[in-house]
Amino acid sequence: MKFFSCASCQNQVFFANSQCVSCQTTLGYIASEKDMGSFEQHSPVLWLALNEKYQTKRYKPCYNYQHHQVCNWVIPAESNDIYCESCVLTYTIPTLDNPDHIVYWSRLEHAKRRFLYLMQRLNIMPRPKYNDDDRYGLRFNFLMPEPEHPVLTGHANGVITLNASEADVIYRETTRIKMGENYRTLLGHFRHESGHYYFDLIKSLHPELVDEFRQYFGDERQDYNAALQRHYEDGAPQNWDQFYVSSYASTHPWEDWAETWAHYLHMMDTLETAYYAGLIVRNNRKDTHDLSFYENPIGAQDFDLLLKQWMTLTFNLNALNRSMGLEDAYPFTLSAPVLDKLRFIHKHVLGKAFARQIA
């Protein structure tokens, strides 16, 4: 994640901010610029950008920004659209007659925007799914479960469904413990489920990559439902950590891909944040490396260098968390087969294999 500043006072601002805490200037994310804008409000739907790069441009807040305060993105004032590039992807939300549902929806949208920011940075931003037959678009359904209608988080045919109860911290943490997971976050759900969406794009747009995929992840044509049932009945193989990034990844090649894809996104976002923070770590152990950045990790060609930086960064993040009495920030180890899978993803993200024909 890049670091941003207020155009009025140069104070640091963050991706989720809608107002500068220093000078109270109105803020909003300009997706086309991949930047936080500072604005002078001429009217509720006409904001003049104060940033030097686009001072003459006029914007308006997303409908969900203006009416529900669950968004902080803006769109060009002359656009006929009322929703920003993030909110337009949301097809279904919980009913808003319950105040808790508004809180859950806001948390889900915040996590989605963070996920989409990285997709923008990687130049693989999804577009809306125009209709049920649209093979390349993406749509989100945020659903609250009911006693007779449970909601399963998952992906099918360009539609990602999220159980909105996951935005309840107590529910999510209880589920994490029940499932025996080390890590469970809203952002992680978006990144994992998006892996299924992008895999479908690979198969559809780049069938020549499928054989290479199977070399690393296995044959995805094996029975998924049977594999899932076997996983929940018998658990993961005892040696799963020698081949997979998580126990759930051992279930089926689809889940191996989605889990590894999510970890790639975790890595790239965190490394970019460290880059913009100017973090430098001097090596004081034989099994770690110096951490310093000569280029932005986004788009970097030398993936082995990125892996060294990642190992050093996560080692120190975990040590810092332990000093605060917290669990590890990154409770995973990466075996050689997992590193090869991450290299496969990086190679084809750099080659923009995911981007062609989805615009």
From TrEMBL:
Query: What are the Zinc-ribbon domain coordinates in residue numbering?
Result: 4-97
- Provide the protein name: Zinc-ribbon domain-containing protein
Matching entries from Pfam families are given as: Peptidase_Mx (PF15887), Zn_ribbon_DZR_6 (PF10005)
